[in-house]
C-alpha cells in the first residue's frame, strides 16, 4: 500500500466487555432483567465452524476481541495506518427482537455506552447511532436525541428486518436521518432470527456457509425496495450505506431493475430517473467481504461497471473471522481510485 | 441472425385452453372438484401492470395465447426459424399448493394432457414432466411413469418451494431423474404464494416490479443449497436447468461461495471441488430475461466470466410480457458461441 495513504475503515466491530456494561444505561424494568439474565438476543441457529470472532486479536487486558479501545488502536489502526475508524459495534441484531420497547431501550443504552466508553477515548473514533426499527417513531426520537454529538456520524440498523426497507413504515427513520444530514447504514447478522423472515426466498438453508453466502440476497431485496418505493425522491439528500453485503451483484441488479422499470414504470410513477441512477447517487457500499475471482482482473471489470471508485468505501470487518486486511485487496486500482475508496469517499460521506 | 442457424427455444409456455382440459385426466375426488370449481391455484397477490401474457399473440382459433399448437408453430417457430421448442407449460406453481395428493394429481393430469394434446401434434415439440415436490416420493413415481416417453426430455418444477432445493427431502426426485438420464429444471412464478416463504429475505415486497426483480434471489438460494448439500456429488450425472432466473449474478455468487467455501469447508466435507466447478459442470441457464446493460459490451464481459457459451441456452419465454426475441440479444457473440447457445447446448442436454 501507498505509505502516505491513511485509511478510513468504515466497519469495525467494537465489542462489549460484557453485556453488563449496558446495565448502568438502562431504565427499569430492563435494568434488573439484563443484570439478572443478560440481553437475550434472538439467535438464528447458524454456527460458523471457525467461530465468528478472531481469537488472535484478544486484548491482553482481558475481555473479548475488540473490547479494549487502546488495544484496537494498536492492533488495527496503528498497524494499518488508519486515520479514522467508524465503529459499528455488535448490536444491530436488536432489529430481530420481538418487543419494540425493549429493543429501543437496548439501542439507547448501547449508544450511551458508545459515547461514554469509546468515543471519549480517542479522537479517531466515529460512532453510529444504533436504532431499533420495530417502532420507527421511537427510532426517530433516538436519532434526534443523539444526532448533535460531534462524533456520531450515521444511523445504523440491522439488515435483518421484518419488511423491505423501502416500505412506508420506515420513513420516519429516514426523515430524521435526512433532517440531521446523517447517512443510514445497514449491517447483516440477524437474518432469520427472531421476528425476521427466512434468510433466503427458498426458506432456511442448512449451514452457516450457505446462510452467510446468501446474505447478499437480503441486500438486493432492500435496495430494490428503497429505490422502487421512492425513498430517494422523498428524501433527496439521504445517503444509504450497505455494509458487508457484497458488491459484485450490483451489475445484475441494476440492469435487471432498469429493464423491468422500463416495462413496468406505471406502477412507480414517483420515480423520475432510472433505478440505477438512484443507486449510484444515493448508495455507498463497503468492501468487505469482497468477492474474489480466480482472475483478479474480472473484479476490476465489475468495478468499472459500477463506478466503484465513487460508491465503495474500505472496510476491514475487524475482528470477524473473514475480515479483509487492507494490503490484500484493491491492489490493481489506480492511485486516485485507491485514495477515494480508502479515504476520501468516507471522509466526504461522514463529513470528517 | 445467421439464416442457417435453427433455434431451440428452451422455455415456451404452452397454455391450457381452459382448466377443464385437465378434467378427463383427473381421478376422483379431484375430477368433480376441478370440473365444478377450477384448479384453485394459490396466488401471490402481485399483479403485473402490463399483464403477464402478451395479448398480441392470441390464436385466431380462440383461447388464451399459446393454447393452440398450430398457431404456436406459426407465430413462434416458423417466424424465428426454430428447430425445436421445449414446452414448459403453465403449471409449475403447483409447487405452492398445500395438499400433496392434490398437487400430485394435478401434475399427473397435466402431464397426460401435454402428451395427448401437444406432443402428439408436432414432432418438433419436446415436453417436461411437471412434478409436485411436496411429496418427493410421489414425484419420483411420476418421473418413473413418464420418463420412457420419447418426447419427455426433463423433469420440471416451480422454483417456489418450501425449502432450499439441495436439502435431503428432495433427493428422491433427483435420484429418479438421474436414473432416467433426465435433467431437472426449475421455473419461477409462484414465489410467495401458498406454502412458500416470503419472496425475498426482507419479506414481502410491495409491487410486481419489485417481486419480479427479486426472483433471481430465489435462484441464488437454491443454487447455493444444491451445491453445498452435495447433490452433484451424490448424483454425478445430474444436470440442473435454471430457467428464467437471470445470469449476471453468477460471477458474484460463484466468487462469494468459493471464498466462503475456502474458509468454511469443514462443514461440507463431501465436496471434492470448488463450488463454482459444480455449477459450471452441472447447471445450465436460460437466457430470458437477460440482463441488459446500457453498454452491451459489459454483458459480454460477464459472459466471459461464466463461460456462457457452455452454460447458456436460448429461451424466449413466449408468450409472456417480457419475452426476449431471438433477434434482439446475443448479437455480439462469436458464431461458434451463438450456435451453442441457440442450438447445440440444448440438443446435447436434451439428447435431441
TrEMBL record, chains A, B:
Keywords: Lyase. It comes from the Bacteria. InterPro entries: ACMSD (IPR032465), Amidohydro-rel (IPR006680), Metal_Hydrolase (IPR032466). The keyword Lyase applies. Residues 97-351 form the Amidohydrolase-related domain. Pfam families: Amidohydro_2 (PF04909). This is Amidohydrolase. It comes from Paenibacillus baimaensis. The lineage of its organism: Bacteria, Bacillati, Bacillota, Bacilli, Bacillales.
Amino acid at each position: 500500500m501507498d505509505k502516505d495513504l491513511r485509511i478510513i475503515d468504515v466497519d469495525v466491530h467494537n465489542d462489549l466487555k460484557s453485556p453488563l456494561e449496558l446495565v448502568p444505561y438502562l431504565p427499569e424494568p430492563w435494568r434488573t432483567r439484563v443484570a439478572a439474565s443478560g440481553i437475550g438476543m434472538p439467535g438464528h441457529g447458524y454456527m460458523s465452524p471457525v467461530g465468528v470472532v478472531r481469537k488472535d486479536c484478544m486484548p491482553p487486558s482481558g475481555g473479548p476481541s475488540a473490547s479494549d479501545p487502546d488495544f484496537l488502536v494498536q492492533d488495527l489502526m496503528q498497524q494499518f495506518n488508519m486515520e479514522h475508524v467508524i465503529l459499528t459495534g455488535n448490536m444491530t441484531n436488536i432489529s430481530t427482537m420481538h418487543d419494540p420497547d425493549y429493543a429501543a431501550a437496548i439501542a439507547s443504552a448501547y449508544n450511551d455506552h458508545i459515547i461514554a466508553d469509546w468515543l471519549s477515548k480517542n479522537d479517531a473514533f466515529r460512532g453510529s447511532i444504533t436504532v431499533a426499527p420495530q417502532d420507527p417513531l421511537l427510532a426517530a426520537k433516538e436519532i434526534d436525541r443523539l444526532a448533535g454529538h460531534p462524533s456520531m456520524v450515521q444511523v445504523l440498523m440491522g439488515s435483518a428486518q421484518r419488511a423491505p426497507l423501502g416500505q412506508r413504515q420506515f420513513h420516519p427513520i429516514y426523515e430524521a436521518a435526512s433532517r440531521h444530514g446523517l447517512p443510514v447504514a445497514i449491517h447483516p447478522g440477524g437474518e432469520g432470527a427472531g421476528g425476521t423472515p427466512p434468510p433466503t426466498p427458498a426458506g432456511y438453508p442448512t449451514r452457516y456457509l450457505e446462510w452467510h453466502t446468501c446474505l447478499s440476497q437480503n441486500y438486493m431485496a432492500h435496495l430494490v425496495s428503497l429505490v422502487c418505493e421512492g425513498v430517494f425522491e422523498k428524501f433527496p439528500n439521504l445517503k444509504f450505506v450497505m455494509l458487508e453485503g457484497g458488491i459484485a451483484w450490483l451489475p445484475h441488479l441494476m440492469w435487471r431493475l432498469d429493464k423491468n422499470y422500463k416495462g413496468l414504470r406505471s406502477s412507480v410513477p414517483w420515480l423520475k430517473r432510472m433505478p440505477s441512477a438512484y443507486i449510484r447517487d444515493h448508495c455507498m457500499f463497503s468492501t468487505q467481504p469482497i468477492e474474489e475471482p480466480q482472475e483478479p482482473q474480472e473484479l476490476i471489470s465489475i468495478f468499472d461497471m459500477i463506478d466503484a471508485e465513487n460508491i465503495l468505501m474500505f472496510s476491514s470487518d475487524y475482528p470477524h473471522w473473514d475480515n479483509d486486511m487492507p494490503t490484500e485487496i484493491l491492489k490493481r486500482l489506480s492511485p486516485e481510485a485507491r485514495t477515494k475508496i480508502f479515504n476520501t469517499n468516507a471522509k466526504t460521506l461522514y463529513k470528517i
